[in-house]
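Worked example (supplementary).
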Amino acid sequence: MASATRLESCFVRLRESRRTGLIAFMTAGYPDAETSALLLDALVEGGADIVELGMPFSDPMADGVSIQAASVAALRSGMTLAQTLSIAEAFRARHAEVPLVLMGYYNPIYHFGAEAFAIRAAEAGVDGLIVVDLPPEEEGELRLHTDKRGLHWVRLLTPTSSEARLAKLLHGASGFLYYVAVRGITGTQRADEQELAQRLAWLGGQTQVPLAVGFGLRTAEDLAALRGKASAAVVGSALIERVAAASERGLQGAALATDLVHAVRELRQGLDG
Amino acid sequence: MSVNSFRGQPDAAGHFGDFGGVYVAETLIPTLLVLNEAWQKEKHSPAFNDELQRLLRLYVGRPSPLYPAERFSRALHERGASTEVRVWFKRDELNHTGAHKINNVLGQVLLARQMGKERIIAETGAGQHGVATATVCARFGLPCLVYMGEKDMQRQEPNVFRMRLLGAEVIPVTSGSRSLKDAMNEALRDWVARPEETFYVIGSVAGPRPYPEMVRHLQCVIGEEVRDQLAEQEGKDVLPDLLVACIGGGSNAIGLFHPFLDEPSVRMVGVEAAGAGLATGMHAAALAAGERGVLHGAKSYYIQDADGQIEEAHSISAGLDYPGIGPEHAWLKEQGRVQYDSATDAEVLQAFQLCARTEGILPALEPSHALAWLLREARSLDTPRRVVVNLCGRGDKDIFAVARHLSDSGSDTESDTGSDSGSDAKPDAESNAGLGTKSGAGLGTKSGAGLGTKSGAGLGTKSGAGLGTKSGAGLGTGLGAESSG
Ligand SMILES: Cc1ncc(COP(=O)(O)O)c(C=O)c1O
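After joint prediction of all chains, the assembly is encoded as:
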C-alpha cells in the first residue's frame, strides 16, 4: 500500500491523541488574494487541523448568505480558479503538513478541464476535494482524473439519506466523510444534538472512514457537544462572518488575521475542553 | 452510435446523451429520488391523467386553437417567402393565465397533492410561471411562495401584483444578478431546508432529473394537439413542414417539437434571445454563444466567462432571460435534429407590432422571437409550406416594456409594418397610423392616447395611476381610476 497521505496521517494523529479535529473554512480570494493568504495562515495558527479552501462560484447553491457574500467579494476582487490553485500552492509551500481540501462547485472545474484541474490541484499540494454538486451519480468524469493523482474524494452524507443511499455513499468514500448536520444550506440552523449523536454512532459502526460534521456549527459550545463523537468538526460561515465583521470595523491585513486567530483558538478550545 | 429515435431520451439516470443528469448537492438527492419515484408512477396512473385532462379542458381551456394566420402569412410572402407558405399559430396564449406555463404547473401541483406536500415553491423570471403557479395553488388552496429576482420584480411589476392578488407570497431575491438564475438558486436553497413538506415547481425543462423529462411530458400536449388539429384542417396524416418556437429554458419549444421528433420531414427551429446582438455579449443565447457547463442540476450550455462563472443574460423579454437552456435542447442541437437560431430585441419589437396589426393578436415578447425569425428568414422559406409557430404567451404583460422601448428608440417602427403594400413600401413614418412616433394613436410616444408615455391616461408611464411604471403606488391604487385621458 502507498504511504499514508497527509489527510490520513492527520486523522491517525487525532485519533491517537484522542482529539476531535477542527476543519476551518475560508473562501479563496476573500476579501482579496493577498489577505486571503494571511487568513489561511491564521487558521493554522489558531489551531485548525485541516484547512478547507472555498473555490468561489457565481451560483453557490448549497451556501447561505455569508459564504455567498464571500464568494461574490472574491470574484469581484478578480479571483479565478487558476488563482485559487496558486493560493493553494503557496499555502503548501508555507505549511508542509497541514492537509488542504478544496471545496466548491463543478462548473469552474469543468470549464478549466477536469484533467487539467486534477493535475494542477495535485501539483499544488491539494489533498482532497469536496465538489458539492457532484453526487456519486455524476462524480465519475472528474474522479477518474483525481483518483489517479492521489486526491481524496470527500463525500457529503445527509440526515435524510436512506440506508440504501448511505451504503452507496460509504462505498468509495475516501479521506473523510462530511456529515451535513442540518437540513439546509451552510450557516443556517443549529443541529439537533441528540439526533446527531445517534446518527454519528450508527455511521461509525458502518465505516472506517473518519466522520467530519459540518453546516450549522458556529460556536465553541456547538463544538464542545461534538467532542469525542466525531473525528472532526467543520466551521465555515461563522469564521467568514467574523472576518466580515472585523473588516466592517476597519481591520485589514495582519490585524484581520490576528482577529481570526483568536476566533479559531476559541473554537479549538471548545473542541479540546 | 446511430440513433434510431429522438424520443427515447433521457436514460434512467436522467441523461440526454452527455447532458442533463443530477448535478446537485447530496442534501437534495433524497428529495429528488422520492420525487422521481412518485412522478414515474403518477404519469402512468389513470386517475392522475383523468384529473389532469379534466382540468386542462375545464380550467385551462384546452385544446387551444390552431389558427391559420393568413395576414401574417401574407406579410411573409411580401418579404420574399413563397406564396405557398402558410403559417398557423398554436394559440397557447389563450390558456388561462395567458401562457403555456400552466400546462406544466397543473401537472406538477397535482403530483404535489398526490405526494401529500403542503407547501409549493417556485422561481419566476417574467412572472408568467409564478402567476401560473400562484393560480393553480389558489385553485387547490395551497400556500405558494414565489422567488423572484429583485430586478425582475421591478420590470414585471404587474405580475408581482397578480401573484399577490392570487394569495402567493413573492419573495425578492437580492443575491447574484437578482434575476431568474438567482431566483432558482434561492428556491433550491429553500427546498433543501424544508424538503419533507415542500414541492418545488420548476417552470421549464431545466433542473435535475426528473424535471426536464417531467416538464416536457406535461408540455407535449401542445404538439399532440397540433398533430390532431392540422390533420383535421388539412387532411388525414398531414404533417407540418416547419415548427418554430422561442427558447428560454425550452419548455414551450420541446412541448411543440417532441411529438414530431421522429418525423423526418418535419423541420424545427428553436429561437433564442439575441438581446442587443450576439456580438455585444448582451444576450440570452446559451446555445449560440454559451459553452457547455453545469448549473441548477443539469449539464447543458450556459453563458459564462473564461473562469466558468455564470454570466447574466440579457433580453427585452424577461421570460427568455436565463443564461442556460434545457439539457434536451443541447442534445438535440448536438444531434443536428433541431436547428437553433436567435433574434434580436429590435427584430422582436418589429415582429410584435406586425403581429398585433396583421392578426389582432398581441403576442408576448417571448413568442415574438419565433415570429421575428420567420420574418427575417422569409426569403429562405420556399419548401416548408405548412409552418406552425408556438404562440405560447400573450403580450398584455409586455405593453409597458414595448411602449418604453419604442419611446426610447424614437421610432423603431418598420416602414411597412402592418401594410399590405409589399416589402418595398416607402419608409414613410407618417403613413403608418398608430405605431409611428408622430402618429396620434396607440403606442406613439407623443400621442395623447392609450399607452403614450407622456399621456395622462390610465396606463401611461408617467401617470400617477394604477399600473404606470413610474408610479410608486405598488399597483394598488385603483388601476387607472385617475385616468385623465
Ligand atoms: C410566454 C412565455 N414564453 C416562453 C417563455 C420561456 O420559457 P420556455 O422556453 O421554457 O418556454 C416564458 C417564460 O417565462 C414565457 O412566459
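Two points are worth noting when inspecting this output. The CA atoms of residues 114 and 142 of chain A lie 5 Å apart. The beta strands of chain A are 21-27, 50-54, 100-104, 128-131, 152-153, 155-157, 177-180, 211-214, 232-235.
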